[in-house]
């Protein structure tokens, strides 16, 4: 397999200019990152959605900075030639700039990310600007922002009326002005996402935001229906149902263990007679 050429923020911005769609996959560990890189995914996002998907929480709020560093490091080992963006988790960028930069440093130095992602609009722009000035690329995230789900009243579609549409446009422009290299638009009406994408010079990456963003992102486990039970999502397309294959395979394994048909002769190793003699003693030694 040929070695993949890694993107950077200059190349990512040029993809928008050239009209080349950007593919992003949210992945959380070494094997999913390695498979994503082998599939030539442009960007891997280490999302704090790992709280829901792989840690069993009911939201992203319990996810810690240490969780993000741990999973980011695993992804970086699996995708050495892919641009990696790692989420700043809940309440790690709403305090002092010094505190925020310490968290960013951990993600970059220990998590081996190439950029960080932050949820929010105008209220985080001074922080985005400070991080960018420190030399770290920032990916913005507006629309549905899961870390604020308790404040916004649940998982609701954004941009359904003129006032909300204007708010989203203003937030996107503010993040661009603050130095963000791109913006994730989550659960935003297609018309509003299209208008924002046309207005900005930086790429938009949609999830549940329609057909006209500059790129798309989906979670590895959603693309492959790798969950139990799996919850259908309108904005997700399933490309393979590996969850069913895994359940069937595990079920067959349990069945064969119970039946003692596994392991069979082809799965075992044999020892020389001398080894057995050393364990149990030979018949000659017993006679003596």
From TrEMBL:
Pathway: Cofactor biosynthesis; (R)-pantothenate biosynthesis; (R)-pantoate from 3-methyl-2-oxobutanoate: step 1/2. Mg(2+) binds at residues 48, 87, 119. 3-methyl-2-oxobutanoate binds at residues 48-49, 87, 117. One of its GO terms (biological process) is pantothenate biosynthetic process. InterPro entries: Pantoate_hydroxy_MeTrfase, Pyrv/PenolPyrv_kinase-like_dom, Pyrv_kinase-like_dom_sf. The keyword Methyltransferase applies. The keyword Cytoplasm applies. Its EC number is 2.1.2.11. The active site is at residue 186. GO terms for molecular function: 3-methyl-2-oxobutanoate hydroxymethyltransferase activity; magnesium ion binding; methyltransferase activity. It is found in: Cytoplasm. GO terms for cellular component: cytoplasm. It catalyses: (6R)-5,10-methylene-5,6,7,8-tetrahydrofolate + 3-methyl-2-oxobutanoate + H2O = 2-dehydropantoate + (6S)-5,6,7,8-tetrahydrofolate. Its cofactor is Mg(2+). Binds 1 Mg(2+) ion per subunit. SUPFAM superfamilies: Phosphoenolpyruvate/pyruvate domain. Its main location: cytoplasm. Pfam families: Pantoate_transf. Keywords: Cytoplasm, Magnesium, Metal-binding, Methyltransferase, Pantothenate biosynthesis, Transferase. Homodecamer; pentamer of dimers. Belongs to the PanB family. Catalyzes the reversible reaction in which hydroxymethyl group from 5,10-methylenetetrahydrofolate is transferred onto alpha-ketoisovalerate to form ketopantoate. This is 3-methyl-2-oxobutanoate hydroxymethyltransferase.
């Amino acid at each position: 397999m040929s070695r993949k050429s890694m993107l950077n923020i200059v190349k990512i911005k040029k993809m928008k200019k050239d009209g080349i769609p950007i593919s992003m996959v949210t992945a959380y560990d070494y094997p999913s990152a390695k498979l994503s890189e082998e599939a030539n995914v442009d960007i891997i996002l280490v999302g704090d959605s790992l709280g829901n998907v792989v840690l069993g929480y009911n939201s992203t709020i319990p996810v810690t900075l240490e969780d993000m560093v741990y999973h980011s490091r695993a992804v970086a080992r699996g995708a050495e030639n892919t641009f990696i963006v790692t989420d700043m988790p809940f309440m790690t960028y709403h305090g002092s700039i010094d505190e925020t930069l310490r968290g960013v440093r951990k993600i970059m130095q220990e998590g081996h990310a190439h950029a960080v992602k932050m949820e929010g609009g105008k209220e985080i722009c001074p922080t985005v600007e400070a991080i960018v000035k420190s030399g770290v690329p920032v990916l913005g995230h507006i629309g549905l922002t899961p870390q604020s789900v308790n404040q916004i009243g649940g998982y609701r579609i954004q941009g359904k009326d003129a006032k909300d549409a204007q708010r989203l446009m203003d937030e996107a422009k503010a993040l661009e002005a603050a130095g963000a290299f791109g913006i994730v638009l989550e659960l935003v009406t297609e018309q509003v996402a299209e208008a924002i994408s046309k207005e900005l010079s930086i790429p938009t990456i949609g999830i549940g935001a329609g057909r006209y963003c500059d790129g798309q992102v989906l979670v590895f486990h959603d693309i492959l229906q790798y969950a139990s039970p799996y919850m259908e999502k309108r904005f997700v397309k399933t490309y393979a149902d590996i969850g069913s294959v895994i359940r069937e395979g595990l079920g067959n394994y349990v069945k064969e263990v119970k039946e003692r048909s596994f392991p069979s002769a082809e799965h075992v190793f044999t020892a020389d007679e001398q080894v057995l003699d050393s364990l149990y003693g030979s018949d000659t030694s017993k006679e003596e």
